[in-house]
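Consider the following input, taken from an annotated entry for Heme biosynthesis protein HemY (Cellulomonas wangsupingiae).
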Amino acid sequence: MSSTEPGHLPEPEPRDFRRLPEPVALEDTVTSVDVRPVPDPDGGRDPDHEWMLRHA
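Applying the prediction step yields:
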């Protein structure tokens, strides 16, 4: 279908990314996920080592 045929609508021009937003300073950002270290679920013990000693 050529553009001269009746009923043909021209393709709309893409409007995304014509103008990018202003850059954000790193000092203005905040974390959305807690990044602190999690506590050790084994309490500092090695369960594999204890299992080997128990069942060796």
